[in-house]
Amino acid sequence: MTEEIKWLFFDLGSTLIDETECYRDRVMTMINGTDVTYDEFIDKMLFFYRQNGKGDRLAADYFGLAVPEWKSALERLYPDVKESLEKLRRRYRLGVIANQNPGTVGRLKKWGIDGFFDVIAASAELGVAKPDPAIFLAALNAAGCQPADAVMIGDRLDNDIAPANALGMTTIRVLQGYGQYRVPACNGEIPDYTVRSVSELCGIFI
């Protein structure tokens, strides 16, 4: 497999970027001034994620709470990301395919990883979002790469794995963030490989 692969495409949230504090802040903001405890809300979130739903929003609906704005400033790199990208970059071209608020390139620069990527396909700038295959095709076109020569790496079965599988890309699921609680709803959501962190990719590709 590695002899054929030329490009590795990454999702960002809960793949390269740790969103733990973002979710914590969102939950704390929602329950502030209510009688809903943090643990109660998280338990309900996990219940909905295990049902393959958007857990934080469904839990907010359940408790009758408004969902606050996402605070991108609280996002952090997972600790193994830079070293892993440095190693992978020696053998492969790297890209990003991600649903993101405006300013993705600026955030990549802030985290010090912008230089690793030759293609950045972000939903806010392209006007199309995963799981629409158009965002994957835009990235592949920019890379001059065929789907069979590329890998999609992400945490979401619905947004990352299923559409990339449908296009003929190799798929790798990263069990991080709340996406790890989802279960495949159909054969199309089953990844080719599953890892628990980006650093484990080095064992597959290097």
Give an overview in words.
- The protein is globular and about 55 Å long.
- The protein folds into two domains: 7-19 and 75-205, 3-Layer(aba) Sandwich (Rossmann fold), CATH 3.40.50; 20-72, no CATH class.
- Helices cover 40% and strands 15% of the residues.
- The longest helix has 13 residues, at 38-50.
- It has helices spanning 20-31, 38-50, 55-63, 81-89, 104-111, 123-126, 133-143, 157-167, 201-205; strands spanning 7-10, 17-18, 76-77, 93-98, 119-122, 150-154, 170-174, 193-195.
- The strands form two sheets. A six-stranded parallel beta sheet has the order 5-4-1-6-7-8, with helices on both faces.
- It contains nine helices and eight strands.
- The termini are close together.
Percent of residues in helices = 25-40%
Strand order of the largest sheet: 5-4-1-6-7-8
Number of strands: 8
**Beta-strand content estimate:** 15-25%
Q: CATH homologous superfamily of the largest domain - what is it?
A: HAD superfamily/HAD-like
| Major pleated sheet | 6 strands, parallel
Order of helices and strands: EEHHHEHEHEHHEHEEH
Q: Give the end-to-end Cα distance, rounded to a whole number of Å.
A: 12 Å
What is the count of structural domains? Answer: 2
Give Rg in angstroms.
17 Å
Question: Low-confidence parts lasting 5 or more residues at pLDDT below 50?
Answer: none
Structural class call reads alpha/beta
Q: Could you name the CATH topology of the largest domain?
A: Rossmann fold
Overall body shape:
globular
Average pLDDT metric: 96
CATH architecture term of the largest domain: 3-Layer(aba) Sandwich
The CATH class designation of the largest domain is Alpha Beta
